[in-house]
Amino acid sequence: MGCIAAIQCAITVILLVSTTVSSNDKSRIPADPSSLNTWFRDNVKPLASRKGTLDPALEAAEAKRRTIKVRRDGSGEFKTLKDAIKSIPTGNTERVIVDIGPGEYIEKLKIERGQSFVTFRGSPGNMPTLSFAGTARKYGTVYSATLEVEADYFVAANIIIKNSSPMPTGHLVGEQAVALNIVGDKAAFYNCRFLGFQDTLCDHRGRHLFKDCYIEGTVDYIFGNGKSLYLGTKLQVIADAKGISSQLTQETTREKIVDSRSVFFGEYKCDGAGANTAARAKSSKKLTDDQVAPFLSLGFIEGSKWLLPPPS
């Protein structure tokens, strides 16, 4: 009987262990876009099945969730996002979901370094717009952002972030106008739109995920030192023919003055008109399957320790 009891105990332990799973950092991102959502669901499991595998601080924060509502009509706890952000204490240790009602919020916003674990959540059917007309001329390039996020573990879902400054003429200094400046580590953006012209998205530093997003601009509209994955995300150039021509001229000139030993430009299985490599800079490279492998999994951003499905 003792032997049978021991076997039963061992089976019970195995069953208990098998209920805890982790995000898969090694599974390759599928080349077929139609398979992306299934792959993501299979590899980024909900919190309930991943306890003990996430960053301890994140897991503790997710266990203490609270929601605050922002409504322009006054039906929430706050009418402005700035006031909602002010209510989150420095040193915050719980997931604060800022549920944002529809409409345009014309505010310049900043989530400070100590305000970790903040989520901005809008409705996918009626996405709120965060808008401000900051420019480099007044604030400096990265500080012109409509939304600056310095805190870690930030999440945004179903939000439009817009810099409403006019399209640069090319004749004035300081026309750069950033919509989002993301500085914090381990941030995720789901179904968000980033609107602007020059320097729309400053992917400043840290590990980030952009999934099912839309990013538009004219020149340098994604820049920074971030280590990020862009999955199912559309990048849209909105410059007119003259603007595109000037951009290409700038790049051609840059090739002449930059030491090619300090530049890396790699491409992998590109298609369309822009995939013609005949006029590529000499420093550009076509990557092999082995060379590109480190960039084509969640391991690139170490997602197994912090990435969760989009908030519902």
Q: Could you explain the architecture of this structure?
A:
- The protein is α/β, with parallel strands linked by helices and 312 residues long.
- Helices cover 20% and strands 23% of the residues.
- The chain contains seven helices and 20 strands.
- It has a seven-stranded parallel sheet.
- It is globular and about 60 Å long.
Key features of this structure:
312 residues; alpha/beta; 7-stranded parallel β-sheet; 6-stranded parallel β-sheet; globular; disordered N terminus; Pectin_lyase_fold/virulence; Pectin_lyas_fold; signal
Helix/strand layout:
Blueprint: H1 2-18, H2 36-43, H3 56-62, E1 66-70, H4 81-86, E2 96-100, E3 104-106, E4 109-111, E5 118-121, E6 129-132, H5 136-139, E7 147-149, E8 155-157, E9 160-163, E10 180-182, E11 187-190, E12 193-195, E13 201-203, E14 207-211, E15 214-217, E16 222-223, E17 227-231, E18 234-237, H6 241-257, E19 265-267, E20 284-286, H7 289-292
Parallel strand pairs: 1-2, 2-5, 3-6, 4-7, 5-8, 6-9, 7-10, 8-11, 9-12, 10-13, 11-14, 12-15, 13-16, 14-17, 15-18, 19-20
Catalytic activity: [(1->4)-alpha-D-galacturonosyl methyl ester](n) + n H2O = [(1->4)-alpha-D-galacturonosyl](n) + n methanol + n H(+)
Organism: Salix udensis
Keywords: Aspartyl esterase, Cell wall, Hydrolase, Secreted, Signal
Describe what is shown at a glance.
This protein has 312 residues and is an alpha/beta fold.
Query: Terminal Cα separation, in Å?
Result: 49 Å
Radius of gyration: 22 Å
Bulk shape: globular
Average pLDDT figure: 87
- The low-pLDDT segments are 1-20, 243-258
Tally of extended strands?
20
Helical residue percent band: 10-25%
What is the percentage of strand-forming residues?
15-25%
Major sheet summary line? 7 strands, parallel
The number of helical runs is 7
The class by helix and strand makeup works out as: alpha/beta
Instruction: Give the strand order of the largest sheet, numbering strands 1, 2, ... along the chain.
Output: 1-2-5-8-11-14-17
Order of helices and strands: HHHEHEEEEEHEEEEEEEEEEEEHEEH
